[in-house]
Design a protein that fits this description.
It is a single chain. The chain has 566 residues and is of the alpha+beta class. It has 14 helices and 18 strands. It folds into two domains: 1-93 and 440-476; 105-236 and 244-426, no CATH class. 28% of the residues lie in helices and 26% in strands. Strands 1, 4, 5, 6, 7, 8, 9, 10, 12, 13 and 16 form an eleven-stranded antiparallel beta sheet that branches. A three-stranded antiparallel beta sheet has the order 3-2-11. β12 and β13 form a beta hairpin. The protein starts with a helix and ends in a 15-residue tail after the last strand.
């Protein structure tokens, strides 16, 4: 494919050559028309010189004429080349198209995969599965998420189903102050709490499996809308114990969330096999909740030994390690345990700021739920990628008689008897929108218009040199033969005063000439008498004239050095 810049360069070169040719022909026509109208030999010389030399045209001064103008225009038109080069450039533009991507990823995390723990302890007595611990470490150290997806050659965006956590929350807001009048059961001065616990099923403390799904409990408490107030209250009132004295009023928000193992629809962005998860995972649509068996059937077959496997216990432990936090306030300071309490604190600005007032009531907190769920669902997504080729029943394949094969959560009753599938998720074929940067030619019409304007102006200024060409009666030129014939040179004596150069060549083309010194001899009878040099009589010689001209080679000799010629 030939680029526009190359085509424009060819067009520019062709146009400039054509305009230059037109100018040269127009200068010839103008010279001959000047000769027809009559003028001095100096005028004819200027017409020729201005048409032949840019320097002469530029320095013409008072002798400036339309031939000089045409010469300047034909020369200036060359500026169209850099303009045309700017008229088309190469830029990188994003282009999108739909592509089919094959995505190996688990729809559910394997049963009993994330951790092992004490049957009587809950997540407090839990240890992560080694593989899952490595996944959590990859998240905390922000190692990019490599997928192994195929079919995307650029930047692709779409939606995929994968293991995740479905969240269901309830919240309430109540007035809060630091004088013991809060209408909620909160520890004295407790201003922020984030707490996670894991339960095998919907029981009171997770000691034994109960009916329902295993779940992670997330309790959140934080205060907001507080402003620092003077410890001395409203000084306009005589009673220093008025209700504003040392007030630290605000709003306390309490939230409780239940997290279940599920399959979510994740929006993803895939670039060079690296995936990112944009958006708020709380809003991701839930495809389904991961199925479990009936705990009573499970208990009939398995004893809960000291160490048992868990599907969600490791996730709960990771959440505890990363997000459990508490902040407790007294009048002038705040004690924080766990980083979350500091990360989500909000300090007032201006005269009510903590620095200005030294009042801890100027500090509030904001809701971390979205960020926490984004983190936990990224860990679940990483787990889904790591277990894409592992059966979700893989741990169940161990002998049920071994103590370490007991489970907290009941697995589906369809396994191990006659499973409907092998538990390995079939790679998904998803349609994604692929965006790739391609080099395209971008037109800059301003530069193109400028170049065309220069060309058009040049053409219009050259055209006047052709006016009257029809008066000449032939295709004229400034060929030396044609000019010599027009000046009636003796060497071209004969017919064809209006002949073309071609006709003159037919008539005189074979005549031999030479340029050099020619001597004219005069006698007493006639100053114009001529005869060959070898016939001169010294007695008859009156004068000799030496000059340079074209003549018959027999009459011409080479010019002499330092000679003066007429």
């Amino acid at each position: 494919m030939v680029s526009p810049s190359v085509l424009l360069a060819i067009f520019s070169a062709t146009a400039n050559v054509c305009l230059g040719f037109a100018h040269s022909q127009g200068a010839v026509v103008a010279w001959w028309r000047k000769a027809l109208r009559g003028g001095t030999l100096e005028d004819l010389s200027h017409y020729w010189e201005f048409g032949d030399s840019l320097l002469a045209a530029g320095l013409s001064g008072r002798k400036f004429n339309f031939v000089a103008l045409a010469t300047l225009a034909a020369s200036a038109v060359m500026v169209d080349e850099p303009l045309l080069q700017k008229a088309s450039t190469i830029v990188s533009k994003p282009m999108t198209k739909a592509v089919n991507v094959t995505a190996p990823i688990a729809l559910e995390i394997p049963y009993g995969f994330t951790g092992m723990g004490n049957a009587y302890g809950g997540s407090q007595a839990m240890i992560m599965n080694q593989t899952f611990a490595q996944i959590v470490n990859a998240y905390t150290t922000r190692i990019p998420i490599k997928t192994g997806f195929t079919g995307c050659a650029g930047n692709c965006s779409g939606t995929i189903k994968a293991a995740g956590l479905a969240i269901n929350c309830s919240s309430a807001s109540v007035p809060w102050n630091n004088n013991g009048t809060s209408s909620t059961n909160v520890g004295d001065g407790e201003v922020f709490t984030s707490s996670f616990d894991w339960f095998p099923a919907n029981g009171t403390n997770g000691t034994y499996p109960m009916e329902g799904n295993p779940w992670i409990n997330f309790d959140l408490l934080y205060v907001t809308d507080r402003t620092a107030a003077s410890w001395y209250g409203d000084q306009s009132k005589p009673d220093l114990s008025n209700e504003n004295r040392g007030a630290c009023n605000g709003t306390l928000v309490r939230q409780r969330c239940t997290l279940l193992s599920a399959t979510l629809n994740y929006p993803i962005v895939l670039v060079n096999d690296i995936v990112t998860l944009p958006g708020n995972s709380i809003t991701f649509p839930v495809d389904h909740i991961q199925a479990v068996g009936v705990p009573s059937d499970f208990m009939d077959q398995h004893d809960l030994n000291t160490i048992s496997f868990t599907t969600l216990g490791g996730v709960g432990l990771a959440a505890q390690n990363m997000f459990n936090s508490i902040a407790i306030q007294d009048r002038y300071s705040i004690q924080v345990n766990g980083s979350l309490g500091s990360q989500y604190s909000v300090f007032d600005n201006g005269p009510t700021s903590y620095i200005a007032s030294q009042d801890a009531c100027s500090i509030n907190w904001r809701d971390p739920t979205s960020d926490i769920m984004n983190a936990l669902n990224e860990i679940m997504f990483r787990t889904a990628l790591a277990t894409s080729d592992i059966s979700k029943y893989s741990v169940l394949n161990y002998s049920i008689t071994d103590a370490w094969t007991s489970f907290y959560e009941a697995y589906p009753v369809t396994y191990p008897e006659q499973p409907k599938d092998n538990g390995i998720s079939v790679p998904q074929n998803i349609t994604m929108e692929q965006t790739v940067n391609v080099n395209v030619f971008q037109s800059h019409y301003g530069f193109l218009a400028g170049a065309l304007a220069v060309m058009v102006i040049g053409v219009f200024l050259v055209i006047p040199t052709f006016i009257g060409f029809w008066e000449l009666g032939r295709d004229p030129s400034l060929n030396p033969l044609e000019l010599a014939k027009a000046f009636n040179a003796a060497i071209l004596y004969g017919p064809g005063s209006n002949a073309r150069v071609g006709d003159l060549l037919v008539e005189f083309g074979k005549k031999e000439v030479k340029y050099g010194e020619v001597v004219d001899d005069g006698t007493n009878d006639s100053r114009t008498a001529r005869e060959p040099d070898n016939g001169l009589s010294s007695g008859d010689l009156i004068f000799r004239r030496r000059r340079l001209e074209f003549a018959d080679p027999n009459r011409v000799k080479n010019p002499e050095f330092h000679a003066v010629y007429n």
